[in-house]
Write a structure and sequence with these properties.
alpha/beta
Length: 262
Amino acid sequence: MCRKPRKPWELMPAWRKNEKFATHRGYGKRGEIGENTIAAFVHSTEKGFFYHELDVRATKDNKIILFHGPLLESTTSGKGRLEDLDSSDLIKIDWDDYLKNEIFVATPYLEHYFEEVAPKVITNIELKRDWFDTSHGLEAETVRLIRKHKLEKRVFISSFNPFALRRFHKLAPDIGIGLLVNPGLFFDFRETLLRHFTCTDFIHPPEEACTKKRIAKWKKKGYSVHVWTVDSLDRAKELISWGADLIITNNMDIRDEYNENP
């Protein structure tokens, strides 16, 4: 049996209820500053964002890297799966190669993010794990780094992979869990089943699956609702009026626009 869902401000005392927006991959998906790079999170923090969403994967030698994937060539100058390489293989890879600029961006390690950005903000760490990958190192090493940097009250975890969430919960039951659910057929059935399997605290629905009725249902059951990925100010206002607690966005101006005209 799972315990009742916990509120984000219970898990993370620094949580600001009046702040409604989180960055997506630092400065937006394939943003103008390399996604999931330290620079992206530094710049968005300077713009006033207090919440960040980032993706992590593990190398073959179990170093945790900020990277969405699944293939390196999607955004970097590397090739293949990150999970098939050792960290020593990453030295010459440019991590914002998709921007085609002359700036070389070195490997963004989760530990570097923890050192430079995490102590000032709240971070949603999304565990990225391919379904055929059954290794356990990603969750255990992420927990180790969180404990090392004493960030238990500054981070929470999310994933589409229910087994990764369940494994993480067993390793660190004090840290919040958010369930990501893909849109599509049988959404309500899948969301309900996975919610109970993972002992989640937060529901992370896609914007297109959000209705006033669904959000009301989740709120009534005690869940916080973090919606991805919303770039329209009007849609963000609607979701917030329905009770959404956090809006994950690629739009780096939406926070200021909302605060000027909530």
